Amino acid sequence: MARSSTTKPSAIVDGLVFTAGALMALLIFLGLYSFLSPDPVPNRLSSISLPFSSPRSNHTHEPSDQTFYDDPSLTYTIDKPISNWDEKRSAWLKLHPTFSAKTERVLMVSGSQPKPCPSYDGDHLLLRSLKNKVDYCRLHGIELFYNTALLNPLMPTFWAKIPVIRAAMMAHPEVDWVWWVDSDAIFTDMDFFPPLDRYKDHNMVVHGWPKLVYEEKSWVALNAGVFLIRNCQWSLDFMDEWASMGPPSPNYEKWGKILTSTFKDKVFTDSDDQSALVYLILTGKGGWRDKIYLENEYYFEGYWLEIVGRLENIAVRYNEMEKRGPAVLRRRHAEGVFVSYAKQRDAQLGREKGAISGPKGWRRPFLTHFTGCQPCNGKRNEQYSGDNCTEGMYKALNFADDQVLRAYGFRHASMLSGDVQPLPFDHPRART
């Protein structure tokens, strides 16, 4: 079965999920993803080690030996399965030893629609969101592939990511993990990095709760908008199975009926990627769930509406911690050693009261997911006002950007301001 921490969802989360009913399920569907919050957990998160960034190796030499790339029968499209991928990938890596690494390599993948956004500020918000991901990847020494092409016209909207991830695995045999992050998900803790060692026995990591999968049978028991998936044969086979429940399948309408009857809080009849994923875990169909880790000990992605209102207070608490903490927390440094200082902050958080993840703590949320806001097409859920979504996104983006700009000696004048101001020496202890 899918493994996870034994931590139970908070009462706040249970209330949101079980009392909102069909209306909230529809609300979340329009945003495509779940709204559940991670549980408050002890400060043991501070013990998670962060990978040190390393300069990109020189990969200019390409051996003449033939590899899977020279096989004319192999295709990048999702409709034709790949076999023996682990062996193919291993053989390629032996021919390219410069790609060897002491830590597991990660490729982040995200994307947006091929055409310009119809909403007034949609393209700008997507640009800011892309910058946020570029910043995060640069700080942690990982690669980013941002896609704007629909690789399979029969798999639009939320299904579009599966063909992209499949192609990314083939284009990057050197990476161990592909990390899908929706375009409307914003990194709001630039220090944190997922604890990959925790997932060594699993091939997929998704934000979710076993209780909501197995007992409540809720289609919002997990979130399919952000996940890690290992670059291996298991993952290719799993994505084939997952995609078989999507629009290209002759059984697409049948799957819609099955999913709707299985999940009583699902009020639309189409088969969607998130319901399909919950179904595969719930039923054990194909035996996939043993390798899927349901992460709920931190904000692997978090519902924006319960986060953005707390960002100002979180920023204040971090400033207070750095004021009274050791001088190393305030020391100026080059961006290239960012992770070293992130580890210092993480260690200090472990000594702070209340510095835990979740709605009851003041630790920075790792990823803030703006489900239902639809920044590109502007068709926001009716429960949200345009100002609510837009202001929330700018708050999250500037909150994260301040963490980046610090190495450059600046910060935003406020969380809703595009203006910046210089940081004084010994900030935040110094008077401004």
Automatic annotation (TrEMBL):
Localization (cell): Golgi apparatus membrane
Keywords in alphabetical order: Glycoprotein, Glycosyltransferase, Golgi apparatus, Membrane, Signal-anchor, Transferase, Transmembrane, Transmembrane helix
Biological function: Probable glycosyltransferase that may be involved in the biosynthesis of xyloglucan.
Residue intervals passing through the bilayer: 12-36
Family note: Belongs to the glycosyltransferase 34 family.
Membrane association type: Single-pass type II membrane protein
Main localization (coarse): Golgi
Signal peptide coordinates: none
Keyword Lipoprotein: no
The keyword Protein biosynthesis is assigned to this record: no
GO function terms (MF aspect): galactosyltransferase activity
InterPro entries: Glyco_trans_34, Nucleotide-diphossugar_trans
Pfam family, one: Glyco_transf_34
Record's protein name: Uncharacterized protein
GO cellular component, one term: endosome
